[in-house]
Amino acid sequence: MSASVWRRNARVALAAFEVTLRMNAPDPFVLFTILVQPLIVAVMAMWMLVERGAANALFVVIGSGMTGLWSALLFMGGNSINWERWTGTLELMVGQPTPVSVIIFGKNLAIVTQSLLSMVVSYIFAALIFRQSLAIQQPLLFAISLVFTVIAYVTFGLVIAPVFLLSRTVQQFQNAMEFPIYMLCGFLFPIALLPGWTTPLSYILGPYWAARALHGTTTGSATFAEVALCWGMMVLLALAYLVLSQWLTRIVLHKARADASLRLE
Amino acid sequence: MRALAINIRLFLQGALLSYVALFGWLRPVTYLASKVFMPLAQILFWTLLGTFATGRENASFFIIGNAIQLAAVNGIYGVTMSVGGDRWAGTLPYLFGTPANRLAMFSGRAFMHVIDGMFGVVLGLLWGVLLLGLDLSQANLAGLAFAILITTFSTSGLGLLLGCVGLVSIETMFINNAAYFGLMIFSGANIPVSSLPGWMQVISWALPLTRGIAASRALIDGASLISVMPLLAGEVVLGGVYIMLGYSLFRRVERQAKRSGKLEGF
């Protein structure tokens, strides 16, 4: 890919990023998903975990924030192609020369960036209401982990969107997919509580490694080698998600064109 | 006598048709996802979180709490969609134009959701028995069935009120989600009501589910129905209050809509 194509794609992704941010900002559903719901989860987890000494407040802040990230990605990122279909802009998006996945990337980046607010809100809430000490133990490693987390989530979202478009049946299970990922990724409790056969499933999920890295760096319980392993896994999985999403998007668009069902539900 | 027969028929027809209409878009696979798998995932998550915090011996507290809380899936989402759906479907003018008894028509919207909600709660408890080892050997099953009926009734009362809010607001889903998750905090499903601050306990006891969950826990522990009657009576009264509040709002919306000519104004 030449430099000019990279520049053009980056410009389009940035435009998609900006438009998505602007469109999401006043949307009550978005606000509920990234602000209210994680806050409610944080309140309950604070009471259940911190008050009983099962975990510290930062663990809950990070965990509940990550539930917000996942819910936002699931509902908004998952529908990012469908949304274009509902608003009648899918044909225009498919017809223009930039690959559709570049636009979806920009949209997912906006959703994930915006969803980081859920962590900020949980942090402020825990500090003000529960008056908990919230010092991040390894701030530099935490900041780097956060960047990798964004990459892991955005690329994971690239896989979800075409899958939902490809199968309406799978999309029906969208609501039911929220809690399983909270569990499989160990956002608020260790995956050791789950049956052993689910562990490989956790390992192929980028958000699991993100949760491990963020929990480890905030509490200071992880060594550098452990954090580096998480970063490596996030990069590896991100690459795998990119390849998979390219393939899935190609199938979806081919099918939609061949069936002339681009606009149809 | 004839008027009574007409009102009963209206109630039953309204109940059935609003439920069938809901399935105009709610396919069997959607039902499976939202009424079978989502509740399972919810029970598993909160039970595992709860046992992580307090130990495996307390698992039943979270299983029962979350299973009964599932009454809100129908009570909140189902009922509000049945009531508010008329606005979105464009049938509100017809509804307000009929001479039919409003209370029969209005309360009929919740009837099938009470039945379906009970099924959802039973399924939740069944998941608890099959996957999480919930022990029902001491349970007063007849009493429990009665408690589930009362709880789904009272939760549907809140749903009727919220459904009317949906007739005047376009943020129905925001309101529904906030109510559903709010009930999770206040109902005692996951946090004992007694451990909440005083002002939160006041809210807890003013909401449906709280008494129903407490009664169900006692009944599963083997308590007699008589001993939980005060809780269940409170739940019935609360459900009735919410239905009447919803009905008053429904009539008010109707009057306002007719007066202002904004029957379907968004």
Structural account:
The complex is a heterodimer of chains A (265) and B (266). In chain A, helix 3 runs antiparallel to helix 7 and helix 8 (139-166) runs parallel beside helix 13. Chain A has one domain. Chain A has helices spanning 3-24, 28-50, 57-77, 80-86, 90-95, 100-115, 117-128, 139-166, 168-172, 178-184, 199-203, 206-219, 224-259. Chain A has 13 helices and no strands. With 265 residues, chain A is mainly α. Chain B has 11 helices and no strands. In chain B, helix 6 crosses helix 11 and helix 10 (210-220) runs antiparallel to helix 11. Chain B has one domain (2-260). With 266 residues, chain B is mainly alpha-helical. Chain B is elongated and about 60 Å long. Chain B has helices at residues 2-22, 28-54, 59-69, 71-89, 92-97, 102-132, 141-168, 172-186, 198-205, 210-220, 225-260. Chain A binds chain B through residues 28-29, 31-32, 36-37, 40, 43-45, 47-49, 51-52, 54-55, 169, 172-180, 182-183, 188-190, 193-194, and chain B through 27, 29-30, 32-34, 37-38, 41-42, 44-45, 48-54, 171, 173-174, 177-178, 181-182, 184-185, 190-191, 195.
Assembly status: heterodimer
Q: Order of SSEs of chain B, N→C?
A: HHHHHHHHHHH
Largest sheet entry of chain A = none
Mean pLDDT of chain B: 86
Low-confidence stretches of chain A: none
Q: In percent, how helical is the residue content of chain A?
A: over 70%
Distance between the termini of chain B: 40 Å
Number of strands of chain A: 0
What is the string of helix and strand elements of chain A? Answer: HHHHHHHHHHHHH
Q: How does the overall form of chain B come out from the CA principal axes?
A: elongated
End-to-end separation of chain A: 34 Å
Average of per-residue pLDDT values of chain A:
87
Structural class of chain B: mainly alpha
- Largest sheet entry of chain B: none
